[in-house]
Amino acid sequence: MPLLLFVALIGATVGGLLARQRKGELQRVNEQLHQINVALRSLSYAPIGGRISEKESGKNFFRNQELEKDFLEFKTALELAKSLKDLTEEKKAARGLGASLQRQGKYQEAIKYHSMVLAISDLEGEDSGNIEAYGAIVDCYTELGDLEKAGILYDKYIARLETE
């Protein structure tokens, strides 16, 4: 019996030492991966990480009614998307800018960015977000008192709703 206990004790000790060694290795690898990730995010040509953070920050500021901050974040995201020639991200940032300006009561500028969403959709040949853009433009023209333009775009908005 004491021999069996002695063998079990040695086995547990060896197992514990190996587990500690593996834990140390995992921590070193994790630290290396973290450093690589930080370095990649700092690169100006990093395809995803850099621009998403601005867009996500803009969304958070937008939700919290921090309109000046969300405008700046969406503007940065738009400039980054343009420099990377990424139309999808450009469209998302333009949508955010339009919504931000609309909440600030800057309807003419908001129309410009909502129209940019429509123009990018034409370039891409993909129309996701167009219904929302038409609706937002209609709202802006209505707020500006230009009911004729609002009516024309409202008809396009309804036509899009019916086709989807």
Keywords:
164 residues; mainly alpha; Serine Threonine Protein Phosphatase 5, Tetratricopeptide repeat; MalT-like TPR region domain-containing protein
Structure summary:
With 164 residues, this protein is mainly alpha-helical. 87% of the residues lie in helices and 0% in strands.
Structure report:
This protein is an all-alpha fold. The chain has two domains: 1-42; 49-163, Alpha Horseshoe (Serine Threonine Protein Phosphatase 5, Tetratricopeptide repeat), CATH 1.25.40.10. It is 87% helix and 0% strand. It contains seven helices and no strands. It has helices at residues 2-42, 49-63, 67-84, 87-104, 107-124, 130-144, 147-163. The longest helix has 41 residues, at 2-42. The mean pLDDT is 79.
Number of helices, where a helix is a run of at least 4 consecutive DSSP H or I residues = 7
Mean pLDDT: 79
Terminal-residue CA separation: 78 Å
CATH architectural label of the largest domain: Alpha Horseshoe
Q: How many domain modules?
A: 2
Helicity, as a percent range: over 70%
What is the makeup of the main sheet?
none
- Spell the H/E element sequence: HHHHHHH
Rg (CA only): 27 Å
Q: What is CATH's topology name of the largest domain?
A: Serine Threonine Protein Phosphatase 5, Tetratricopeptide repeat
Number of strands: 0
Strand content: under 5%
Protein name: MalT-like TPR region domain-containing protein
Signal peptide: 1-19
Keywords: Signal
Pfam families: TPR_12 (PF13424)
